Amino acid sequence: MTVTDPRPETALAPAADSTLKHRPGRWIDNWNPEDNAQWNAEGKAIAARNLRWSIFAEFLGFVVWQLWSVVVVSLPAAGFQLSTGEIFWLISMPSLVGATLRIPYTFMVPRFGGRNWTIVSAGLLLIPSIGLAIAVSNPATPFGVLLLIAALAGFGGGNFASSMSNITFFYPAAQKGWALGLNAAGGNLGASVAQFVVPIVITVGAAASLNLPLAGLIWVPLILVAMVGAYFRMDNLSAAKADIAASLAALKEPHLWILAVLYIGTFGSFIGFAGVFPKLLADTFPDFTGFTIGTATVTLAFLGALVGSLARPYGGKLADRFGGTVITIGAFTVMGLGILSVILTLPLQNFAVFLLCFLVLFAAAGIGNGSTYRMIPTIFALRSNGGIGAQRKAAAALGLISAIGAYGGFFIPQVLGFSKTTFGSYVPALGSFVAAYVIFLALTAGVYLRMSKKTGTRI
Among 54, 111, 122, 334, which residue has the least CB neighbours within 10 Å? Predict the structure, then answer.
């Protein structure tokens, strides 16, 4: 299975015609999705085929990224002696590594080709999946080894950036939003599926002990399918180029950093709370382990990630209609009220109320993901004043902001873990999140409502 780049130097030069040329290694020259004739003749079908396999590979990336958030809840029952702080490190480490990897992963598609890098990035998922299976099979496994394997699960978080970068090159501007929305939503669903499937698999037929190694092993065949599917069904585009100049220009734009902070509040909340939700449920309601069906146990932690994933596309649609700023402000308002409701109703010890409050938070975070993302191209268009084009800077900013926002998946479990170990309760951490959402809301309103009024443009 070769993943080398066989393209000759002449492939880098602009083509004189619009006829697609296919070369060994599934390289395609002369790709131009804005050419209607080319798009209708071949381009649309090629793009759709690549999108399907991209979604599948990214879906598995999110699955692997979230495996430890599910497994840690069962480690004590399997004989592992871990402190609360150590458990929260296992939850948060994949997000720390995944967020960091998103930056270099963004540039891998132009360097190696989308098809080639999908094969490699999917293959890398085998390491944390098999590593997890080996590590959790022995309660004597040192914490340092567990933490290292959890860090390697960050490979799955990096996949989002390269997958989104790849699909961007395949679609015309008018359809990029739709295609990227499908790609993102399909990937995000992986978090929910992992939290639904893994508890069932590790408890099926487990009378006296848990089948924890299956949490990693069950995904190995699907990862192999993704690799083979990418090898035979995906393509590399010689037209895909890394825009280093645009990335550097975007980094100098103050609004990139403001939007990155807001994205930590929206996507960071989604991925952070999705990762920690199984642990929160287990700690807050230890007597409720889930619903038993035969020998399997079905938990409800997966509902948070599911609701957030499904809500994301609606955030983009609402932003198109009412403006991203207004919807983002609304999202932060509802997120703050959702957490505040959790704090106020905790003394009731009512599982249904607790779950409902968090589902409201997840829905608002998902909507905020879509609306914040939608604001980026508009803001960069307004800020364009010559030099690097607004569209190029916005495209670069999308990748950088998605990387920075993912660090929320590290901060949220760490704050919750600190609160639990220091105060014996999650309430102080939850209160700090309410304060953070108030700050995010004020920042959004103060900067972008003012910009909207000043420019007369709906942002």
Answer: 111
Give pTM, 2 decimals.
Answer: 0.89
* pLDDT tens sequence for the chain (459 residues): 434 444 443 344 444 467 899 999 999 999 999 999 999 999 999 999 999 999 999 999 999 999 999 999 999 988 999 999 999 999 999 999 999 999 999 889 989 999 999 999 999 999 999 999 999 999 999 999 999 999 999 999 999 989 988 998 999 878 887 888 788 888 889 999 999 999 888 887 544 467 899 999 999 999 999 999 999 999 999 988 888 888 888 899 999 999 999 999 999 999 999 999 999 999 999 887 677 766 667 788 999 999 999 998 889 889 888 999 999 999 999 999 999 999 999 999 999 999 999 999 999 999 999 899 889 888 988 887 655 677 778 878 888 998 999 999 999 999 999 999 999 999 999 999 999 999 999 999 999 999 999 988 888
The DSSP bridge partners found for residue 296 are: 293
Extents of the domains making up the chain: 23-242, 243-459
Domain 23-242: homologous superfamily in CATH: MFS general substrate transporter like domains (1.20.1250.20)
Domain 243-459: homologous superfamily in CATH: MFS general substrate transporter like domains (1.20.1250.20)
Q: Is 357 left (phi over 0), alpha (psi -120 to 50) or beta?
A: alpha
Contacts of 268 (CB under 8 A, 6+ apart): 405, 406, 407, 408, 409, 411, 412
Distances (CA, A) of 252 to 153, 203, 357, 397: 31, 51, 39, 11
Residue 448 to residue 453: CA distance in whole angstroms: 8
